[in-house]
Amino acid sequence: MSTPSPASPDAPCPVPPDATAPPGAAPPPRIATPAEVASPVEVARPGEIAHPGEIAPSPAVPRPPGPADVAPAGTAPAGTSTPPAWLRTLADRLGDALMTGRTRPGARAVDARPAAVLILFGDGPDGPDVLLLERAAELRSHASQPAFPGGAADATDADRVATALREAAEEVGLDAAGVEVLAVASPLYLQASHYLVTPVLAWWHTPCAVAPVDLAETSFVSRVPLAELADPANRVMLRYAQGGLLSPAFRVHGMLVWGFTAGILDILLRLGGWERPWNRSAVVDYPLPREVPAASPPAKPATPATPSPPAPRQRSSSTP
């Protein structure tokens, strides 16, 4: 699903800091130790990952599934896993939690086009993670923007869950048979694109290899660990050129995740109790500056040739 345009104020705001678990709810996940949070490897762009000395201490993230989170023998097929307790708790809290004043539908969304995004959590090589993709740079709208898999509903979709799973299969080759849907959040209205987007939260119990299906539409696919999203070193505020609106953003796996997608991730981190204090004064302006080659000087005998631009960065596809 594409994120809003740069001038759009559609990025969700965080839920109130006093949003806590109801009485009797499961205790928050324990804090992972540094040894439990591995550095990104195969799906990250190597030149854009901080060196170990530049990474903040391990954030408070969900622990990897343990014996209490795995179904008893004989209740789950081999090679699969049941949703961990922390994700079940998050699913129970979802409801209207992702909605803000700017994304609350109301009368303005009566004729909005329905759509859905898939918020897919899994147990990856670096701990719990979420699946993100990056739009192709050649697209006329939302070019190079990171997003959750998803898109507009088709007439043949039975519901918004079917929309989210179909779009994920078309975009990254996701096998819906390996996914368990846990919650369907209240639809969010995006004024700039006039979409009514339903977030679908799911567990990837049987991961499969994923990669861009059509490079003209999707350029990059990545399983981003929650530890990296929660790391204060990877968090900034994005300031839009029109209106000066500030919204949260993440620098992960060589991507700047912003807008609608970043707003949802920001709320989920807070809702799950994993957010750590981060520097909100670190501001990145959008649109991002582009490298423009300097004008060639007048021809002179001793003038050196203008150096060639660097070769494009190599990108890796995400694997289970």
Q: What can you see in these coordinates?
A:
- 12% of the residues lie in helices and 23% in strands.
- The protein has four helices and twelve strands, in the order H-E-E-E-E-H-E-E-E-E-H-E-E-E-H-E.
- Strands 1, 2, 3, 4, 5, 6, 7 and 8 form an eight-stranded mixed β-sheet that branches. The protein has a four-stranded mixed β-sheet with strand order 11-10-9-12.
- The chain starts with 84 loop residues before the first helix and ends in a 34-residue tail after the last strand.
Can I get a quick summary?
With 320 residues, the protein is an alpha+beta fold. The chain has helices at 85-93, 160-172, 226-230, 259-271; strands at residues 113-124, 127-135, 146-147, 150-152, 179-184, 188-190, 195-204, 218-225, 235-240, 246-252, 255-257, 283-286.
